Amino acid sequence: MDTPLIRGIGLGRTYGALTALADADFAVMPGEVRGLIGSNGAGKSTLIKILTGAVAPTSGSVEVKGETVRLGDPSEMIRRGVACIYQHSNLAPAMSVMDNIFLGRQPTGRFGRIDRRRQRADAQALMARHGITLDLDAAVGTLPTVKQKEVEILKALALDARVLLMDEPTGWLSAADVVRLHTTIRGLKADGVAIVYISHMLDEIFTVCDTMTIMRDGRVIAEAKVAEMTRPRVIELMVGEKLARDSAAAARVPRRPGGTGEVRLQVRDLTRTNVFRDVSFDLHAGEILCITGLIGSKRTELMHVLFGADRADSGTIEVDGRPVAFGSPREAMAGGIGFVPEDRHRDGLMLGLSMTENLVMATLSRFCRALLLDHRAIAARSTRSIAELAIQPPDGTKAVRLLSGGNQQKVLVGKWLNLGPRVLILDEPTVGVDVGAKAEIYAILRAERDKGAAILVVSSDLEEVMTLADRIAVMVAGRLVAIHDAEAVTMARVVDEIGGAA
Amino acid sequence: MTARSATLALLAFFVATLAFFWFAAPRFATAGNIENLMSGFSFVAILAIGQAFPILLRGIDLSIGAIVALAGMVAFDLVLILHWPGWLVIPAAILAATLAGALNGVLIVRLRLQPFIATLATLAAYRGLVYSISGRQLVPGLSTTPIRDPWITGLESYLDIAGTLGLSDLITLPWVPLSFFVMLAVLAGFQFMLGSTRFGRDLYTVGGNVEAARLAGIAVGRVTIVAYALSGFCAGVAALLLVARLTTATEALGTGMEMSAIAAAVIGGVSLSGGIGSLYGPVIGAFLLGTILIGLTLLGISQFVQQILTGGILLAAVAYDRVLFLRRQRRLTANLGEEA
């Protein structure tokens, strides 16, 4: 058997208490297209970042063509012919397309002067070879995102890479562009390039890949030939038996689409120009509505408008039947909206302060007696929250920074529950949270729902959506394309809709 | 393309300002005054060119005023105490300034300091260093001794272009100070580097998207250190022009000049959000600032009011830069929305 073009051995990466990747072995042969799949937080991106040198692993080693390489150094990996199309744009927006394609490696002549003519000729040859047309002199920042993605793809192809990593390369592309990209991939494969293809779209994996590696919770769970796999089996592996069991159990928890029937939040034709448009839905008391979709489908932007952090250009929002127009998050909070943001470290928690301080932060005015804070009442409230949310360890004086991700998330949820909002919005509530804590957070949210809370959850994690939701709304590119009763819809159907196939 | 039209717009505004004072301000349109403008603001233009490098990286160099004093004092000591020849003093003083700039870069890269904080600290430290090496303090009597080295005083000469070309009978043209040509040389050299070499492209890349630069294998730390070293280099060149002009150096040399340099660079369209701008802009910006200040002086407006105006112009330039930034952001989100 040949030596793999690229091979990771026992790769691991931890961030503080969080293990992003553990003991992962990974290899790709020349001319092999390997799909890499798993839910969010499964460790795919961490693995890719280690292979490109963007991140140094905390354990393990990487070999290219059988030689051990220096880790955590992007220029070393580029030199060895490892290129990557990143999920998020890695371009310099003010510079021209031509400069971006050859970022850091422009051909030079005498006195280090850049050979523009050669650069242009090379770029044109590259575009002709791969059937991509771009204005080489346009500044990248002025191009539409699809075109930027094409620049990103050309940039990687320009390296004449032996190993090409693609992290969700089709996220922004139209169906025709995806087909063209797949043609390019087959051409590269015939040239003996090793390709790693990450995608949430199982269709694409089954169309273009030869083999697949399935990851879950930072570990490689299975490796297989695509021809020998079926979709249900892939999904089962991705999700894991425990969660599959949990979700089967959750399926038996009675869903309550429509809740108590009382409309808490009514959104009609909400539009923010060039971001999302004509979004309409109702959220009832006593139900959990999950909004799912791809990254970039503008779910978070929609939440920001609901929470008053941004303004809508048209459309109406009503809370309890009264029209509202929040100018700031402060007004939205006063109007009964709670918002648990996606990035708890940046937007939600004061990591250096104690659990108690974080729990009562948003509600301090209730604990004021004259001008002083009633510390006994605060401690009592905090103890009750900690017990209700089963936060570990149950010690209110402990700094939040020292808690695990799941417990930090519980503190954040608790902070907002203490506010007693009419509508609670959670953006990706379980990112970076381990499986056990996930189940606990779901239980907390269900308990609140049963008490009559109206809960809106934004999530990219389909398992989470299928487990938690009473109703499921799908957002594609700024539009709310469908709302389903969770009992009446299959995961496959939702996957199709997310990809815009419906 | 848009960068070029922005520079042209600035140039047009500069010409209009020049024309305004030409007719409005008494004695503005004289050869002597134009000489003043050229010699008095060439070194500001050089400082602004230097300042452009940190700003292109989303940083700032507050210490250049102190580096000017440091290079000036090094030159003072080498000439008057050690009696080095001028041809050796000039590179030595510039080297000292370049190293001081490079140290800023090292602090920013290695200690991960904010450029503002790092250069604020070195601003104080370098100024203190100037006092401690000051020949004026160490050797009594030197403070009144002028620098007479021909290499250095030669920097403060004027070239009679019109005379050389035999035009002086027809028209009175200002004599062009050598410092103006030094400035042009600095401009030409660095603009070539920035616009046409890979290092220049790397600088724009680091300023535009530091993560993209890192993943493209660009040595971000080294680019940053070099950028601050270049800022120091320019401060060294400016210092020598000043010393030549004053025939001495003082501990307070260059105080507050970072203000003018930053103002000129930002007026010149070097974006504080990084990665955008050329070196022509800062040069035009410096002379625009000079035209306004000299013009107002000739109109009889008080020095204090002028300081307020300088601050006002800087504020306006920064606000305009911000507007452009927000417009770019909006265009970016508009592009993202196109698929909707």
TrEMBL record, chain A:
UniProt organism field: Siculibacillus lacustris
Alphabetic keyword roster: ATP-binding, Nucleotide-binding, Repeat, Sugar transport, Transport
Record-stated family: Belongs to the ABC transporter superfamily.
SMART domains: AAA
GO molecular function: ATP binding; ATP hydrolysis activity
Protein name: Sugar ABC transporter ATP-binding protein
Domain ABC transporter: from-to ranges: 6-242, 265-502
Entry keyword ATP-binding: yes
Cross-referenced InterPro entries: AAA+_ATPase, ABC_carbohydrate_import_ATPase, ABC_transporter-like_ATP-bd, ABC_transporter-like_CS, P-loop_NTPase
Transport is among the record's keywords: yes
Record-linked CDD domains: ABC_Carb_Monos_I, ABC_Carb_Monos_II
Automatic annotation (TrEMBL), chain B:
Function: Part of the ABC transporter complex LsrABCD involved in autoinducer 2 (AI-2) import. Probably responsible for the translocation of the substrate across the membrane.
Keywords assigned: Cell inner membrane, Cell membrane, Membrane, Transmembrane, Transmembrane helix, Transport
Name of the protein in question: Autoinducer 2 import system permease protein LsrD
UniProt GO MF annotations: transmembrane transporter activity
Record's subcellular location: Cell membrane
Highest taxon of the lineage: Bacteria
A Pfam family annotated for this UniProt entry: BPD_transp_2
